UniProtKB/TrEMBL annotation:
<keyword id="KW-0472">Membrane</keyword>
<keyword id="KW-0812">Transmembrane</keyword>
<feature type="transmembrane region" description="Helical">
    <location>
        <begin position="386"/>
        <end position="407"/>
    </location>
</feature>
<feature type="region of interest" description="Disordered">
    <location>
        <begin position="358"/>
        <end position="383"/>
    </location>
</feature>
<dbReference type="InterPro" id="IPR013783">
    <property type="entry name" value="Ig-like_fold"/>
</dbReference>
<feature type="compositionally biased region" description="Low complexity">
    <location>
        <begin position="365"/>
        <end position="383"/>
    </location>
</feature>
<dbReference type="InterPro" id="IPR008964">
    <property type="entry name" value="Invasin/intimin_cell_adhesion"/>
</dbReference>
<keyword id="KW-1133">Transmembrane helix</keyword>
<protein>
    <submittedName>
        <fullName>PGF-CTERM sorting domain-containing protein</fullName>
    </submittedName>
</protein>
<dbReference type="InterPro" id="IPR008969">
    <property type="entry name" value="CarboxyPept-like_regulatory"/>
</dbReference>
Length: 411
């Protein structure tokens, strides 16, 4: 019996291997991407089939699949089912401005039209001669085909493009656009003239901390290499800026956060509105700049907009004095004579104020004492005039009268 079991073991192992291979095969087949066949026909503008057109098909994660059309203009391309397939065409005499795209590919026919090849050379100049780095744009049936710049001699030559009618536009930063219709029926040339110009741009700067935002006067508006101006009472300023360009405009003011805004200028007046806010800060204020030693001074902590800052840590001479209340207020004792520094800190913002501690009876009191002493000295001077203390002229007359009466009685 043991031998029978031994003979059966290889058989069972073989069955296991076959079963595993079968299961693995089924799993692998279910994960493969299904393919479909596109029957592609390439024709010219008259609908005639074209042979020798080289096709290259690509899609996300697949391709390229390369085929060449036969005498009937057809080629068969296997692609992933449901994919968006891009087909590019190359032919000795024909061209297509844009690749052909098959969306959500499925089995079926695809007809692709091409046109005869052409080229265009565009020359751009202004009143002073050739304009280098000028922009050349060409549109066919409303779709962009060319977007390039002229070389140092002010010219640009296209690659092979479809023959037909194009909208041609030339310009440059600081220059007005020139537009025309160009017919490409082979190799053609076209001269274009451009001229410089500027338009007015109105800038408005506000502080949007407020509702509604408030105008910011005295803000600097900088347009690189063009202008550096300052906003007026309404928070606005107007500048002449060259056309058809884009600028990074910077707005600054002391005590405010700087901002940079992108400004695109075309060929008509435009505007740019920008908002800035004050830099985060605190301000420590004392109700009095002179305080009697031993008495408290009322300290208020506010933010950059004058709003009370609660919970600000207040210290005197480096020693903690407490925190401000919901109104931003703390009464801080002044315990020494001379200048006393009161500091506050909140969320990394710091500020300080200095008050003077004076001893009781000091400050203005000595002046008052000195005045009183001076008055007493004047009174003493009057007493030294030969009349007794507390006597004036009237008192002296009364004394003389009393003396005369007494003399008569003795007589």
């Amino acid at each position: 019996m043991a031998r029978a079991h031994a003979r059966m073991a290889p058989v069972l192992f073989s069955l296991f291997v076959v079963s595993a291979s079968f299961v693995g095969g089924v799993g692998a087949s279910t994960t493969q991407t299904e393919t479909v066949t596109l029957t592609v026909t390439v024709v010219d503008q008259g609908g005639n089939p074209l042979s020798d057109a080289r096709l290259s098909a690509t899609w996300d994660g697949g391709g390229p699949v390369n085929r060449t059309t036969a005498g009937n203009g057809k080629a068969f391309i296997d692609v992933a089912e449901g994919a968006d397939v891009t087909i590019r065409i190359d032919h000795p005499h024909y061209v297509r401005n844009h690749p052909y795209v098959v969306e959500n590919a499925s089995e079926g026919d695809v007809r692709i039209r091409v046109a005869q090849k052409g080229k265009a050379t565009v020359s751009v100049a202004d009143a002073n001669g050739a304009v280098d780095n000028a922009i050349v744009r060409m549109f066919h049936d409303g779709k962009p085909v060319v977007n390039a710049r002229t070389s140092g001699d002010g010219t640009f030559t296209t690659d092979n493009i479809e023959q037909g009618n194009y909208t041609l536009i030339t310009f440059k930063e600081g220059y007005l656009r020139n537009r025309t219709t160009l017919t490409v029926d082979g190799q053609v040339s076209q001269s274009m003239t451009v001229e410089q110009d500027s338009v007015l741009v109105s800038f408005s700067v506000t502080d949007d901390h407020f509702d509604p935002p408030r105008p910011v006067t005295g803000a600097n508006v900088t347009v690189p290499d063009i202008a550096d101006v300052t906003t007026q009472g309404t928070g606005g300023v107007t500048v002449s800026v060259p056309v058809n360009d884009a600028y990074d405009v910077t707005i600054t003011k002391p005590g405010y956060e700087s901002v940079t805004r992108r400004l695109s200028v075309r060929e008509s007046e435009t505007s740019l509105n920008a908002s800035i806010q004050r830099q985060s800060a605190i301000d420590v204020r004392a109700d009095s700049d002179r305080v009697v030693v031993g008495e408290p001074v009322r300290v208020t902590v506010v933010d950059e907009y004058g709003n009370p800052v609660s919970g600000a840590s207040v210290s005197v001479g480096g020693s903690s004095a407490g925190e401000t209340d919901e109104n931003g207020v703390l009464r801080v004792p002044v315990e020494s004579a001379g200048n006393v520094t009161i500091s506050a800190e909140s969320d990394g913002r710091e500020d300080a104020v200095t008050v003077e501690g004076v001893q009781a009876g000091g400050g203005a009191t000595p002046t008052a004492t000195a005045t009183a002493t001076g008055t007493q000295t004047d009174a003493a001077t009057e007493t030294d005039s030969g009349v007794g203390p507390g006597f004036g002229v009237a008192g002296a007359l009364v004394a003389l009268l009393l003396g005369a009466v007494a003399a008569r009685r003795r007589a």
